[in-house]
Amino acid sequence: MAQSGRGGGRRPGGAARGGRAKTGGRPAPARRDRTPREQTPAPEEPRAFRLGVISGATPGKWIDRWRERLPHVALELVPLEVATQRGAILSGDVDAALIRLPVDTDDLHVIRLYDETAVVVASVDSALTAVDELEPGDLAGEVLIVPRDDVLGPIAVPGALTPRFEQPETTADAIATVAANVGVVIVPMSLARLHHRRDIAHRPLRDAPTSTVALAWHADRTTPDVDAFVGIVRGRTSNSSRG
Can you give the chain as a three-state secondary structure string? Predict the structure, then answer.
């Protein structure tokens, strides 16, 4: 006998009565974008150009130009003594330096910048200040003080007297002694200006050796910053090619 149409037969399409169509397991997860996220680049480490400077050197105009052209690179000034200027460059304590010649140029690049006139520093009450310029012979009978950090080297001064006291350690000490109306000292013009005080005066000394200020850096470390500073002291504009 035929079964009633309300029996437990399957519905067309194979779905059980009252059931759901099989999907073969859990619903497939939504598709994810597997493109790697863009990472924000780490900020660059701020860098600095370390310029060694001996006493009396005046890099002001070059510093101004550096700040105009490379505002993102700090320029740090590092005071140097003439006695240790070469070592500071070779050791990497500075990237470049304004130094005084002479210097051993092995492993160094050196560019001469300018020469400084030698002057006689005397007490403001000294008769030596009555003239605008002095000759070595004018110092006969004067006590000639030579500090231990002297940068000019031996100077022939006929008739000058040797101090009976110990050499001052520094030029500043020598000038302080001169201010007490004891002797005279011969220094480059810039050092006389650096240590100027109201109780001293200075006059140019004819036929005296000059002091040369130069730019120097390690021959194996000509970095882009060093090259930029070289261009500034040589007067190259920001649009100039190297050379």
Answer: CCCCCCCCCCCCCCCCCCCCCCCCCCCCCCCCCCCCCCCCCCCCCCCEEEEEEECCCCCHHHHHHHHHHCCCCEEEEEEECHHHHHHHHHHCCCCEEEEECCCCCCCEEEEEEEEECEEEEEECCCHHHHCCCECHHHHCCCEEECCCCCCCCCCCCCCCECCCCCCCCCHHHHHHHHHCCCCEEEEEHHHHHHCCCCCEEEEEECCCCCEEEEEEEECCCCCHHHHHHHHHHCCCCCCCCCC
| Best CATH choice for the domain 48-115+212-233 from the list 3.40.190.10, 3.30.70.2190, 3.10.450.50, 1.10.10.60 | 3.40.190.10
pLDDT of 240 reads 55
The more confidently predicted of residues 146 and 28 is 146
- pLDDT tens digits along 83-118: 999 999 999 999 999 999 999 999 999 999 999 999
Whether this prediction's pTM lies above 0.70 is answered by yes
